[in-house]
Design a protein that fits this description.
Elements lengths: L3 E4 L9 E4 L4 H5 L6 E6 L3 H11 L5 E7 L2 H11 L3 E5 L7 H11 L4 E6 L4 H10 L3 E4 L4 H12 L7 H15 L16 H11 L4 H8 L3 H15 L4 H11 L6
Parallel strand pairs: 3-4, 3-5, 5-6, 6-7
Antiparallel strand pairs: 1-2
Length: about 250
Protein backbone atom coordinates (compact mmCIF):
# COMPACT_ATOMS: atom_id res chain seq x y z
CA UNK A 1 0.00 0.00 0.00
CA UNK A 2 1.42 3.38 -0.95
CA UNK A 3 2.33 5.68 1.91
CA UNK A 4 0.02 8.65 2.27
CA UNK A 5 0.82 12.06 3.60
CA UNK A 6 -1.17 14.63 5.50
CA UNK A 7 -1.03 18.22 4.23
CA UNK A 8 -2.61 21.48 5.21
CA UNK A 9 -4.16 23.96 2.79
CA UNK A 10 -1.97 26.89 1.76
CA UNK A 11 -4.49 29.65 2.45
CA UNK A 12 -5.93 28.53 5.79
CA UNK A 13 -5.71 25.61 8.17
CA UNK A 14 -8.40 23.06 7.34
CA UNK A 15 -9.21 19.52 8.38
CA UNK A 16 -6.18 17.48 7.38
CA UNK A 17 -6.54 15.44 4.22
CA UNK A 18 -4.48 12.45 3.19
CA UNK A 19 -2.65 12.71 -0.11
CA UNK A 20 -0.89 9.95 -2.01
CA UNK A 21 2.90 10.33 -2.26
CA UNK A 22 2.68 10.12 -6.03
CA UNK A 23 0.82 13.45 -6.26
CA UNK A 24 1.94 15.54 -9.20
CA UNK A 25 4.70 17.98 -8.18
CA UNK A 26 3.14 20.71 -10.32
CA UNK A 27 0.11 20.79 -8.04
CA UNK A 28 2.35 21.10 -5.00
CA UNK A 29 4.33 23.93 -6.57
CA UNK A 30 1.19 26.09 -6.41
CA UNK A 31 1.36 25.90 -2.60
CA UNK A 32 4.72 27.63 -2.42
CA UNK A 33 4.83 31.16 -1.06
CA UNK A 34 7.15 33.52 0.71
CA UNK A 35 6.31 32.22 4.18
CA UNK A 36 8.63 29.68 5.79
CA UNK A 37 7.23 26.26 4.89
CA UNK A 38 7.06 23.73 7.72
CA UNK A 39 6.32 20.04 8.04
CA UNK A 40 5.33 18.52 11.39
CA UNK A 41 6.22 14.91 12.19
CA UNK A 42 4.76 13.15 15.23
CA UNK A 43 2.93 9.85 15.66
CA UNK A 44 0.35 11.46 17.99
CA UNK A 45 -2.49 13.34 16.32
CA UNK A 46 -2.97 15.66 19.29
CA UNK A 47 0.70 16.64 19.30
CA UNK A 48 0.60 17.53 15.60
CA UNK A 49 -2.64 19.45 16.00
CA UNK A 50 -1.21 21.36 18.96
CA UNK A 51 1.80 22.52 16.96
CA UNK A 52 -0.37 23.44 13.98
CA UNK A 53 -2.63 25.52 16.24
CA UNK A 54 0.39 27.30 17.73
CA UNK A 55 1.65 28.30 14.30
CA UNK A 56 -1.66 28.91 12.52
CA UNK A 57 -1.82 32.67 13.09
CA UNK A 58 1.80 33.44 12.19
CA UNK A 59 1.78 35.19 8.78
CA UNK A 60 5.40 34.28 8.02
CA UNK A 61 5.04 30.59 8.87
CA UNK A 62 3.04 28.05 6.86
CA UNK A 63 2.49 24.42 7.84
CA UNK A 64 2.41 22.61 4.51
CA UNK A 65 2.47 19.00 5.64
CA UNK A 66 2.41 16.51 8.46
CA UNK A 67 3.43 12.89 8.91
CA UNK A 68 3.01 10.23 11.60
CA UNK A 69 6.17 8.15 11.01
CA UNK A 70 9.75 8.66 10.02
CA UNK A 71 9.17 6.94 6.69
CA UNK A 72 6.22 9.21 5.93
CA UNK A 73 8.39 12.19 6.85
CA UNK A 74 11.03 11.15 4.33
CA UNK A 75 8.44 10.74 1.59
CA UNK A 76 6.82 14.05 2.53
CA UNK A 77 10.14 15.90 2.30
CA UNK A 78 10.86 14.40 -1.10
CA UNK A 79 7.46 15.56 -2.28
CA UNK A 80 7.02 18.97 -0.64
CA UNK A 81 10.58 20.15 0.04
CA UNK A 82 9.67 22.15 3.18
CA UNK A 83 12.14 24.65 4.60
CA UNK A 84 11.97 23.15 8.08
CA UNK A 85 10.76 19.94 9.74
CA UNK A 86 9.65 19.75 13.38
CA UNK A 87 10.60 16.14 14.13
CA UNK A 88 9.41 14.00 17.04
CA UNK A 89 12.01 11.77 18.66
CA UNK A 90 10.20 8.46 19.17
CA UNK A 91 8.07 7.13 16.33
CA UNK A 92 7.23 3.75 14.78
CA UNK A 93 9.05 2.35 11.75
CA UNK A 94 11.81 4.98 11.76
CA UNK A 95 12.68 7.14 14.76
CA UNK A 96 13.47 10.84 14.67
CA UNK A 97 17.23 10.45 14.48
CA UNK A 98 17.10 7.95 11.62
CA UNK A 99 14.55 10.07 9.76
CA UNK A 100 16.64 13.21 10.24
CA UNK A 101 19.74 11.45 8.97
CA UNK A 102 17.90 10.17 5.88
CA UNK A 103 16.31 13.56 5.15
CA UNK A 104 19.63 15.39 5.42
CA UNK A 105 21.32 12.85 3.13
CA UNK A 106 18.69 13.32 0.43
CA UNK A 107 17.80 16.98 1.03
CA UNK A 108 20.68 18.76 2.80
CA UNK A 109 18.99 22.17 2.47
CA UNK A 110 16.01 21.15 4.61
CA UNK A 111 16.46 22.10 8.27
CA UNK A 112 15.27 19.86 11.09
CA UNK A 113 14.36 20.79 14.66
CA UNK A 114 13.95 17.87 17.03
CA UNK A 115 10.94 17.94 19.36
CA UNK A 116 11.90 16.27 22.62
CA UNK A 117 10.59 15.81 26.15
CA UNK A 118 13.93 16.30 27.88
CA UNK A 119 17.10 18.35 27.35
CA UNK A 120 19.52 15.43 27.21
CA UNK A 121 22.98 16.61 26.04
CA UNK A 122 23.95 13.11 24.89
CA UNK A 123 20.88 12.78 22.72
CA UNK A 124 21.21 16.34 21.42
CA UNK A 125 24.77 15.58 20.36
CA UNK A 126 23.51 12.60 18.38
CA UNK A 127 20.83 14.83 16.85
CA UNK A 128 23.47 17.32 15.70
CA UNK A 129 25.52 14.49 14.22
CA UNK A 130 22.38 13.30 12.38
CA UNK A 131 21.95 16.78 10.88
CA UNK A 132 19.51 18.58 13.17
CA UNK A 133 19.74 22.34 13.68
CA UNK A 134 18.70 22.03 17.32
CA UNK A 135 15.65 21.16 19.35
CA UNK A 136 12.51 22.47 21.01
CA UNK A 137 10.90 20.99 24.12
CA UNK A 138 7.45 19.44 23.77
CA UNK A 139 6.11 21.55 26.62
CA UNK A 140 7.58 24.80 25.28
CA UNK A 141 5.33 27.85 25.21
CA UNK A 142 3.96 29.11 21.90
CA UNK A 143 6.34 32.06 21.76
CA UNK A 144 9.31 29.73 22.28
CA UNK A 145 8.26 27.46 19.41
CA UNK A 146 7.71 30.43 17.09
CA UNK A 147 11.02 31.99 18.14
CA UNK A 148 12.93 28.76 17.43
CA UNK A 149 11.39 28.49 13.96
CA UNK A 150 12.26 32.10 13.16
CA UNK A 151 15.79 31.68 14.47
CA UNK A 152 16.37 28.88 11.97
CA UNK A 153 14.82 31.00 9.22
CA UNK A 154 17.08 33.95 10.10
CA UNK A 155 20.23 31.86 10.21
CA UNK A 156 20.51 31.89 14.00
CA UNK A 157 20.86 28.82 16.20
CA UNK A 158 17.83 27.84 18.29
CA UNK A 159 20.21 26.28 20.83
CA UNK A 160 21.20 28.07 24.01
CA UNK A 161 24.63 29.60 23.18
CA UNK A 162 26.39 27.96 26.13
CA UNK A 163 24.83 24.57 25.39
CA UNK A 164 25.64 24.96 21.70
CA UNK A 165 29.30 25.68 22.46
CA UNK A 166 29.56 22.63 24.76
CA UNK A 167 27.91 20.30 22.25
CA UNK A 168 30.04 21.52 19.36
CA UNK A 169 33.20 21.14 21.42
CA UNK A 170 32.21 17.56 22.25
CA UNK A 171 31.58 16.98 18.57
CA UNK A 172 35.00 18.42 17.76
CA UNK A 173 36.62 16.07 20.26
CA UNK A 174 34.82 13.09 18.72
CA UNK A 175 35.81 14.22 15.23
CA UNK A 176 39.50 14.47 16.15
CA UNK A 177 41.41 11.82 14.24
CA UNK A 178 38.49 11.08 11.90
CA UNK A 179 38.62 14.26 9.84
CA UNK A 180 37.81 13.97 6.15
CA UNK A 181 41.18 13.86 4.40
CA UNK A 182 40.07 15.14 1.00
CA UNK A 183 38.45 18.42 0.06
CA UNK A 184 34.97 18.07 -1.33
CA UNK A 185 35.09 19.66 -4.79
CA UNK A 186 31.49 20.78 -4.38
CA UNK A 187 32.45 23.01 -1.42
CA UNK A 188 33.63 26.50 -2.29
CA UNK A 189 36.73 27.81 -0.52
CA UNK A 190 35.98 30.01 2.47
CA UNK A 191 37.66 33.39 2.80
CA UNK A 192 39.81 34.16 5.86
CA UNK A 193 37.01 36.38 7.21
CA UNK A 194 34.44 33.62 6.74
CA UNK A 195 36.66 31.18 8.63
CA UNK A 196 36.96 33.76 11.40
CA UNK A 197 33.16 34.08 11.53
CA UNK A 198 32.83 30.30 11.50
CA UNK A 199 35.09 30.09 14.52
CA UNK A 200 32.83 32.48 16.40
CA UNK A 201 29.77 30.43 15.43
CA UNK A 202 31.52 27.40 16.92
CA UNK A 203 31.77 29.33 20.19
CA UNK A 204 28.00 29.87 20.17
CA UNK A 205 28.06 33.53 19.17
CA UNK A 206 24.91 35.07 17.67
CA UNK A 207 25.03 37.26 14.57
CA UNK A 208 24.83 40.37 16.76
CA UNK A 209 27.72 39.18 18.93
CA UNK A 210 29.77 38.37 15.84
CA UNK A 211 29.14 41.87 14.51
CA UNK A 212 30.23 43.42 17.79
CA UNK A 213 33.39 41.31 18.12
CA UNK A 214 34.50 41.92 14.53
CA UNK A 215 33.34 45.56 14.52
CA UNK A 216 31.14 45.08 11.48
CA UNK A 217 27.48 45.77 10.84
CA UNK A 218 24.82 43.22 11.74
CA UNK A 219 23.89 42.99 8.06
CA UNK A 220 27.47 42.17 7.13
CA UNK A 221 27.64 39.50 9.83
CA UNK A 222 24.43 37.93 8.51
CA UNK A 223 25.82 37.98 4.97
CA UNK A 224 28.99 36.21 6.08
CA UNK A 225 26.93 33.50 7.82
CA UNK A 226 24.71 33.06 4.76
CA UNK A 227 27.76 32.75 2.49
CA UNK A 228 29.32 30.15 4.79
CA UNK A 229 26.14 28.08 4.84
CA UNK A 230 25.85 28.28 1.06
CA UNK A 231 29.50 27.45 0.38
CA UNK A 232 29.48 24.43 2.71
CA UNK A 233 26.25 23.14 1.18
CA UNK A 234 24.39 22.87 4.49
CA UNK A 235 21.07 24.17 5.80
CA UNK A 236 22.06 26.19 8.87
CA UNK A 237 24.86 27.57 11.01
CA UNK A 238 24.98 24.60 13.38
CA UNK A 239 25.52 22.16 10.54
CA UNK A 240 28.09 24.55 9.02
CA UNK A 241 30.20 24.04 12.15
CA UNK A 242 29.62 20.27 12.07
CA UNK A 243 30.72 20.15 8.41
CA UNK A 244 33.76 22.35 9.03
CA UNK A 245 34.90 20.12 11.89
CA UNK A 246 34.54 17.06 9.67
CA UNK A 247 36.58 18.72 6.93
CA UNK A 248 39.27 20.04 9.24
CA UNK A 249 38.49 23.70 8.51
CA UNK A 250 38.08 24.30 12.24
CA UNK A 251 39.94 22.65 15.10
CA UNK A 252 39.57 22.46 18.88
CA UNK A 253 41.27 25.79 19.62
Amino acid sequence: MARSLRMDSMKRRQTTERWDVTMNAEVLAEKEGRAMRLAIVDDHNLAREGLIDMLADEPDIEVVGEAATGREALALCSLLRPDLVLMDVRMPEMDGLAATRAIKQRHPRISVLMVTMHENPGYLLEALKAGASGYVLKDAAQHEIVAAVRQVRDGESPLDPALSARLLRRLALESKGTTITHWDSRVETLTPREIEVLGLIKLGRTNRQIAEELVISLGTAKNHVEHIISKLGVSDRTQAVVRSLEMGILDLS
